[in-house]
């Protein structure tokens, strides 16, 4: 329900939150994503969600474990405030995820 498996920071970055705060954020992100599952029948599967805060941009990307399986992993990413998060996600992250699924499907 929101257990962190791995955390990686850019070299030289000073995190804005402690590990405990980041863990709590992960739980909240998973809960928010789960509440959207009710509307997926009408809108389709969630590809990603982005939240822009004053100091950073956060994205939550669901990663299905197996086709038809309800369990998921979530990739939580943080971006600098002036970055083009949606372009990075669509142009790089989702493409890599598709390639991964093609290889390991």
Question: How would you describe what is shown here?
Answer:
The structure is a single chain. With 105 residues, the chain is of the alpha+beta class. The chain has one domain (19-104). Helices cover 40% and strands 19% of the residues. The chain has 3 helices and 3 strands, in the order H-H-E-E-E-H. It has a 3-stranded antiparallel beta sheet, sandwiched between helices. The mean pLDDT is 87.
Unreliable stretches, pLDDT < 50, 5 or more residues?
Answer: none
* Helical fraction: 40-55%
Count of alpha and pi helical runs: 3
Number of domains: 1
Helix/strand structural class:
alpha+beta
Strand content: 15-25%
The count of strands amounts to 3
Mean pLDDT: 87
Q: How are the strands of the biggest sheet laid out side by side? A: 1-2-3
Distance between the termini: 24 Å
Indicate the radius of gyration in whole angstroms: 14 Å
Main sheet characteristics: 3 strands, antiparallel
**How would you classify the quaternary structure?**
single chain
What is the N-to-C succession of helices and strands? Answer: HHEEEH
* Overall geometric form: globular
């Amino acid at each position: 329900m929101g257990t962190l498996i791995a955390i990686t920071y850019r070299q030289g970055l000073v995190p804005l939150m402690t590990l405990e705060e980041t863990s709590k954020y992960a739980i909240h992100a998973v809960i928010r994503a789960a509440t959207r599952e009710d509307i997926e029948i009408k809108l389709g599967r969630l590809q990603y969600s982005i939240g822009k805060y004053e100091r950073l941009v956060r994205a939550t990307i669901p990663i299905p474990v197996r086709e038809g399986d309800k369990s998921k992993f979530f990739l939580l990413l943080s971006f600098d405030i002036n970055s083009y998060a949606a372009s990075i996600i669509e142009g790089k992250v989702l493409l890599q995820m598709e390639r991964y699924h093609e290889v390991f499907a």
